[in-house]
Amino acid sequence: MVTIHVDHSKPSPARAIIRDWMEKSAASLAAYDADAHLELISKQVKVHGVPELEIIDYKDWESQVRHEFANKLIKSVSFHGDHIRAENPKNIMFNTLEVLTASDGAVVRNGLEVVLRKETDGVWRVIQERILDEGEMKHFGLTE
């Protein structure tokens, strides 16, 4: 078993990578640019914890993004927090609170565990997401 310790007292290059990914994700949504948004997602992505679905893969995510962006169903996305859980030169695992605001004003808050991977082309993309339950969200302080 390998243990990875993150010293939060020292600056982490992972924080800049996470923030860049978050900013690009929010900007591509604001512009309804599905291609730019999908460029941030690995073709091997897996999303766990979606109610009534076992796993969402890239094909599912792409279909959802293209539908939501074409119909302008999501007004905005914001991220709150970047609690780094583990990092190495090719992977970063962190927790964040994602807040989606729909065009009709509905707001959805998801606590997420996200893994970004630096792929062979040098781009950091989400390779895995897991939707956290309420207990995990409280444990990680994922509130606005």
Helix content: 25-40%
Q: Report the sheet-strand fraction.
A: 35-45%
Q: Give the overall shape, derived from the CA principal axes.
A: globular
The spatial strand order of the largest sheet comes to: 2-1-6-5-4-3
> If helices are DSSP runs of H or I spanning 4 or more residues, what is the number of helices?
4
Structural class: alpha+beta
| Major pleated sheet | 6 strands, mixed
Order of secondary-structure elements: HHEEHEEEEH
Count of domain modules: 1
N- to C-terminal distance: 35 Å
Please tell me the overall pLDDT.
Answer: 91
- Radius of gyration, rounded? 15 Å
Tally of strands: 6
Kindly provide the name of the CATH class.
Alpha Beta
The CATH architecture term is: Roll
The CATH topology corresponds to Nuclear Transport Factor 2, Chain: A
- The stretches of 5 or more residues where confidence is low (pLDDT under 50) are none
Q: How would you sum up this structure, described in words?
A:
Helices cover 29% and strands 40% of the residues. The chain is an alpha+beta fold. The protein has a six-stranded mixed beta sheet. The longest helix has 18 residues, at 13-30. The radius of gyration is 15 Å and the shape is globular. The mean pLDDT is 91.
Keywords:
40% strand; alpha+beta; single chain; 6-stranded mixed β-sheet; 144 residues; Nuclear Transport Factor 2, Chain: A; 29% helix
Give a short summary of the structure:
By secondary structure, the chain is of the alpha+beta class.
